[in-house]
Amino acid sequence: MISVSDLKVEFAAKPLFSGVSYVVNDRDRIALVGKNGAGKSTMLKIIAGLQQPTSGVVSIPKDTSVGYLPQVMKLTDSRTVREEVETAFEVMHRLQDEVGKLNSQIVERDDYDSPEYQRLIDRFTHESERLQMMGAGNYQAELEQTLLGLGFRRDDFDRPTSEFSGGWRMRIELAKLLLSHPDVLLLDEPTNHLDIESIQWLEEFLAQRSRAVILVSHDRAFINHVTGRTIEISCGRIYDYKVKYDEFVKLRAERREQQIRAYENQQKEIADAKEFIERFRYKPTKAVQVQSRIKALEKIVPIEIDGLDNKAMHLKFPPAQRSGDYPVICENVSKTYGTHTVFSAVEFTIKRGEKVAFVGRNGEGKSTLVKCIMGEIPFDGNLKIGHNVQIGYYAQNQAQLLDEEQTVYDTIDNVAVGDIRTRINDILGAFMFGGEENQKKVKVLSGGERSRLAMIRLLLSPVNLLILDEPTNHLDMASKDVLKEAIQAFDGTVILVSHDREFLDGLVTKVYEFADGRVHEHLGGIYDFLRRRNLDSLADIGRMKGGTVGPSPMSEKSAGGGKEDYEQRKQQDREQRRLKKRADEAEKKVERITAELKELEGWLSTPSGAQNQEMFEAYGKLQSDLKKAEDEWEAAMMALE
């Protein structure tokens, strides 16, 4: 579908990457990975035609459509949600108008035997079939299913888009893109503004209904579920692996070990050559050999080692005073804005040392309750903060509180204490502020860079209660690993608001689910919770997607294991849907063949039909096809049962 040939991109005469060539085939699901700044977003923009490479060619067939979702875009529309999303069907609407005009022309004419009339009929038939293939009859249902899947409620459909936050408006853009059904989808961090349920819906959509996909994401679980091919940009080159991300990580580690060995051998070769040159530089009898070694040195192409190995980078929160036994106690806590109740009758107690997750659809009150705990907004009920609790709070707008006139290095140096001050450069490097980057002033940093810097400050602060609101949105996978390890080693209490399943896995032991104005407590890890929710949704199909949550007893221990059980359940669900689809297709085939047989039987009952050998042969073949279709349907139904 797409061919990338000898691509090169330079910024200020410095190559970002060069000699890049690969092919994107139909149904490819590609994860584009690499360090921040490696050129992933640039690659997507070039394929989308929004940026020109320094050299090289991207070949896209004329009949291949490409859809692109950037990380950030300026949105200025003034329509309702439904009206804005309907713009994805502009081509279909134009075709509907064209078919309507052709129909009017046919009705007005009576020259039924003329060639012009026949051409008009042929064109009308062709365009009508195109319209049918585009799903003109059920596009409204598809539109609503997509919006519901991405977390909107039905009463949101007719609200002006201007009433929604930037994150929700990005969901609208994603809905438009998915509904336009491009041949190739380019997605740059599509999960940043989605909650867990919407991410799961998007995974299923991409797996079942999209063609080729190239995506950039730091959500490890998401790319493992969606992609089967991994292209890494590293050291200005690409490495193409026909495997999922987890398998790629193992293969990359092996490749890096080989590079290290080759690098060490090359360094020894260079050192030996230099030693020989220095030793015999001024001996006439060795002049030829010295010149030969000098020329050989000049021809050596230095071996580069992919990236920096952050596995050896470990951070620990500085020790803090011990808090009381119960850092947070909520008793009948409620929050309303006018007539709108965000949540009510919230009852829970978080014990010292517990690590818990706040999850749920966006807008259900997770960040609102955090603000209540922090004392930033008023509420009803009783909310107690325990004795000697020192809170470290990372809000989604935390980056706005940094001193813009300070450098990155000084921002961290001002809060670092003890031995940690000798490792500031290593810490900054682990969070992508290595080299000259740490001398930048805060005011020139992007939003994502400021968020990472605020996270580092928090990691160096002595606290005993951590409250982190979406801490991983702007972190790459290596930085997330550093943060996760630090939280695991933290001996205080942690409240995590996050949609990143892989990050939460093995980190939290209790999940608080926000839904329909209530907060439900689930013991166990994030995959225990997801497994329970999937079981609930099978008992009442559509309940999760519609936003209504069934009863979930407080403090009830969820059954089963963690991620493996959850993945097994998802696999069973996928297999069930596959068999159901197979049975439906076989049933339609049986109905179609039966109808054809009846029609043919009518022909065979006529005198002329009874004399037609070809009709008898066709009848026999249809009977054979009917038997096969019935067997297919029966096999699928038995497998389902």
Structure description:
With 641 residues, the protein is of the alpha/beta class. 45% of the residues lie in helices and 18% in strands. The chain has helices at residues 40-47, 81-86, 90-108, 115-133, 139-149, 166-179, 196-209, 220-226, 245-280, 287-299, 366-374, 408-413, 424-430, 447-459, 477-489, 501-504, 526-539, 543-546, 563-604, 607-610, 613-640, and strands at residues 2-11, 14-24, 29-33, 55-59, 66-69, 184-188, 212-216, 229-234, 237-241, 328-337, 340-350, 355-360, 380-385, 391-394, 465-469, 493-497, 510-515, 518-523, 556-557. The strands form 4 sheets. It has a 7-stranded mixed beta sheet with strand order 14-15-16-12-17-18-19, sandwiched between helices. Strand 8 and strand 9 form a beta hairpin. Helix 3 packs antiparallel against helix 4 (115-133) and helix 5 packs antiparallel against helix 6. The radius of gyration is 31 Å and the shape is globular. The two termini are 40 Å apart.
Break the fold down into its secondary structure elements and pairings.
Layout: E1 2-11, E2 14-24, E3 29-33, H1 40-47, E4 55-59, E5 66-69, H2 81-86, H3 90-108, H4 115-133, H5 139-149, H6 166-179, E6 184-188, H7 196-209, E7 212-216, H8 220-226, E8 229-234, E9 237-241, H9 245-280, H10 287-299, E10 328-337, E11 340-350, E12 355-360, H11 366-374, E13 380-385, E14 391-394, H12 408-413, H13 424-430, H14 447-459, E15 465-469, H15 477-489, E16 493-497, H16 501-504, E17 510-515, E18 518-523, H17 526-539, H18 543-546, E19 556-557, H19 563-604, H20 607-610, H21 613-640
Parallel strand pairs: 3-7, 3-8, 5-6, 6-7, 12-16, 12-17, 14-15, 15-16, 18-19
Antiparallel strand pairs: 1-2, 1-4, 8-9, 10-11, 10-13, 17-18
